């Protein structure tokens, strides 16, 4: 580990958690909303669907997320910023990652990239399909909902961990 | 606020968010799968710390009248079914909807497929919303919080939650120190 904290490869989970928790301040004060990530997928999906489905079939859910509002586009910008922030952090520390994490070859029992890519697509599909049913993900229900003591969010987070633990123990091999 | 300012603020906040996610290594597939296999607790540590800090800042901001809470509605059937599917997706993706972007930033190529699948899944839900919402988004208990149901002030329960989390994390750190959980290549891979 060399240099300052920006160049270090890892921070304590508590330091990172404090920074993430403090982000609720600008979210509530400036955008009047809580941290969240999964709605932005609908905004982008609706935008892309608009290419061949101009009026989004009159679907009010898609139209609501595709609307040019500050909240919709703030969240799209937030998730794009996550990629940028991680990229900057990685460049500063030099912790560049391989194309596929070495854990996948062991946990899936195959090192074929095509197998991992196919599973990754399916996993992403499940993840956001579930998040949109639950109306939130690890950020919206997890970080924000539990901090607000929302009962629905607490139930959703318990279900997320139950689904994740069951899948990781039953479907995936031990890493 | 204009959409332009909202986007600017979003990019700034996201950059800080992504920076912290990358430094904590919680975005690593090894951390997420390790957490779900109950052998690595970095995810829980980052998550609970952020929840505790979020609860404390919200306790202050709501008490001072600077902000009001925006809890989501309690839709128990949708919360449970959606949560279970989302959790299965998180384990197989080795990422959450937010952290997959950090994976892309850090160079994981399979994360691009998770992202594409995510956009497809979210859009698929959107088109099915008119059919699924009446089936799943039932048992609507409204935007209730534990503060409402216990009849206690939000700030009091928020501080209590933060203290409880502090105790849990103190014990967790004693049982499983974070420096050990990082692994040799700070990716949560603890293989010999």
- Which class of secondary structure composition applies to the elements of chain A? mainly alpha
What portion of residues of chain B is helical? over 70%
Return the string of H and E elements of chain B.
HHHHHHHHH
Shape label of chain A: globular
The separation of the N and C termini of chain B measures 53 Å
State the end-to-end CA separation of chain A.
26 Å
| SSE pattern of chain A, N- to C-terminal | HHHHHHHHH
Biggest pleated sheet of chain A: none
**Share in β-strands of chain A:** under 5%
Instruction: Count helical runs of chain B.
Output: 9
Radius of gyration of chain A from CA coordinates: 19 Å
Mean pLDDT across residues of chain A: 96
How would you characterize this protein structure?
The complex is a heterodimer of chains A (175) and B (192). Chain A has a domain at 1-97. The radius of gyration of chain A is 19 Å and the shape is globular. Chain A contains nine helices and no strands. Chain A is an all-alpha fold and 175 residues long. By secondary structure, chain B is mainly α. Chain B has nine helices and no strands. The longest helix of chain B is centred in the middle third of the chain and has 27 residues, at 110-136. The termini of chain B are far apart. The model of chain B has no long low-confidence stretch (mean pLDDT 96).
List the helices and strands and how they pair.
The complex is a heterodimer of chains A (175) and B (192).
Chain A: H1 13-22, H2 24-31, H3 39-49, H4 60-66, H5 70-93, H6 103-108, H7 113-134, H8 138-147, H9 151-170
Helix pairs in contact in A: 3-4, 3-5, 8-9
Chain B: H1 3-24, H2 29-36, H3 42-63, H4 76-93, H5 99-106, H6 110-136, H7 146-150, H8 154-175, H9 178-182
Helix pairs in contact in B: 1-5, 2-4, 3-8, 5-6
């Amino acid at each position: 580990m060399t240099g300052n904290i920006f160049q270090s490869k890892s921070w304590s989970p508590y330091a990172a958690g404090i920074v993430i928790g403090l982000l609720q301040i600008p979210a509530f004060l400036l955008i009047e909303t809580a941290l969240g990530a999964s709605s932005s997928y609908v905004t982008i999906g609706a935008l892309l669907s608009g290419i061949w489905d101009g009026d989004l079939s009159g679907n009010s859910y898609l139209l609501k997320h595709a609307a040019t509002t500050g909240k919709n586009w703030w969240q799209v910008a937030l998730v794009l910023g996550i990629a940028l922030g991680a990229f900057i952090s990685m460049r500063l520390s030099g912790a560049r990652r391989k194309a596929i994490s070495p854990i996948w070859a062991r946990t899936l029992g195959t090192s074929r990239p095509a197998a991992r890519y196919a599973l990754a697509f399916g996993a992403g599909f499940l993840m956001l399909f579930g998040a949109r049913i639950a109306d939130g993900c690890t950020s919206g229900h997890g970080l924000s909902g539990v901090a607000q003591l929302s009962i629905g969010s607490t139930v959703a987070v318990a279900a997320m961990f139950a689904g994740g633990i069951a899948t990781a123990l039953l479907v995936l091999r031990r890493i | 606020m204009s959409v332009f300012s909202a986007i600017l603020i979003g990019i700034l906040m996201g950059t800080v968010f992504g920076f912290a996610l990358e430094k904590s290594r919680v975005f690593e597939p090894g951390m997420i799968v390790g957490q779900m296999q109950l052998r690595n607790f970095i995810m829980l540590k980052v998550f609970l710390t952020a929840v505790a800090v979020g609860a404390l800042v919200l306790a202050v901001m709501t008490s001072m009248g600077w902000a009001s809470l925006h809890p989501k509605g309690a839709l128990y059937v949708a919360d449970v079914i959606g949560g279970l599917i989302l959790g299965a997706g998180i384990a197989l993706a080795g990422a959450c909807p937010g952290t997959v972007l950090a994976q892309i930033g850090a160079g994981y190529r399979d994360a691009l497929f998770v992202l594409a699948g995510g956009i497809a899944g979210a859009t698929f839900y959107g088109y099915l919303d008119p059919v699924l919402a009446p089936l799943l988004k039932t048992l609507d208990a409204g935007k209730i919080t534990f503060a409402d149901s216990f009849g206690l002030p939000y700030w009091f329960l928020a501080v209590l939650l933060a203290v409880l989390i502090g105790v849990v994390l103190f014990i967790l750190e004693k049982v499983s120190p974070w420096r050990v959980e990082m692994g040799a290549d700070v990716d949560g891979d603890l293989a010999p």
